[in-house]
Amino acid sequence: MNKNVKKCLFPAAGYGTRFLPATKATPKEMLPVLTKPLIQYGVEEALEAGLETMAIVTGRGKRAIEDHFDISYELENQIKGTSKEHYLTQIRGVITKCTFSYTRQIEMKGLGHAILCGETLIGDEPFAVVLADDLCDNKKDGVLAQMIEVYEKYKCSIVAIEEVPLEDTNKYGVIAGEEIENGVYRVSDMVEKPDPKDAPTNMAIIGRYILTPDIFDILRDTKAGKGGEIQITDALLEQAKNGKVIAYKFNGKRFDCGSVDGFVDATNYFYKKEKGE
Ligand code: UTP
After folding, report:
1. Rounded Cα–Cα distance for residues 191 and 263 (Å)
2. Which pLDDT value is given to residue 140?
């Protein structure tokens, strides 16, 4: 069982503008694929990987996330002993097994900045990061569980990657590196959202990371980059210069639920899965 990585950080402060008006008063992370909010899928993936301490970076208008991972006495009372009680079984299990802590990102200065805001909840230890809008599924081990295994071997920051069509590189952080094992790369370069003509490869970073805690000091010194935001890719590049970033081509499916197309694909996929199709 993994003992080194115990905490999982969920940066969940973004505005979710691509889902307006749904995200005007509802956090993007609470949008459900079938009946389960995106962030609960992420928490369950972390639990499966042996992480039980969830650290969530929220922002204004995100209180529904805290309420979701809490007991609703009124609701519990209302449906106790009725045929509907089973609807709460899964979320109750999650609440029992995990602890949750929260901090707020006051200004949305980018993913790197959101991760830095999480330092107070993480401290001086390696930790996982899940972007709940990247929804992952695998028949066997989840993506985080696979990454923890890679971390145990290399003991440095790990990013999950996926090959994307070259025309889509401008939506992702893109890596270059040397393949040192099947599907495992030592990262030598990283670029945030490059134009396809400037992209070093088509290997894109998806929303799963294991980070070593020196990333916080690096982030403190990282200036705003692409889009005027503090980018985690720029901080990771500093670690990569010392050979301390591994990219891992994970097994499984990933849906970009931050986009409407990806969200619809995920909904169809999980619906068919639930129906056993
Ligand atoms: P996105 O780039 O998807 O941004 O952030 P967004 O604001 O959530 O969505 P759009 O683009 O406006 O539709 C990637 C992840 O980083 C978090 C988001 O919550 C999401 O999980 N994030 C981003 C923060 O927590 N803070 C930020 O300042 C930026």
Report:
1. 26
2. 87
Q: Is the CB of 208 under 6 A from ligand 1?
A: no
Go through the domains of the chain in sequence order and give each one's CATH number.
7-274 (3.90.550.10)
pLDDT of residue 1: 54
28 C-beta closer than 6 A to ligand 1 = yes
pLDDT band at residue 256 under the 50/70/90 scheme? very high
18 lines ligand 1 (CB under 6 A): yes
Q: Which residue has the tokens 């969940």?
A: 12
pTM over the 0.85 mark:
yes
Give the closest residue to 178 by CA, choosing from 249, 246, 250, 251.
246
Is residue 3 very low, low, confident or very high in pLDDT (cuts 50, 70, 90)? low
CA of 85 to the centre of ligand 1 (A): 34
Structure tokens at 240: 């990569």
**16 close to ligand 1 (CB < 6 Angstrom):** yes
Q: What is the residue whose two structure tokens read 């990585």?
A: 5
- C-alpha span between 78 and 75 (Å, rounded): 5
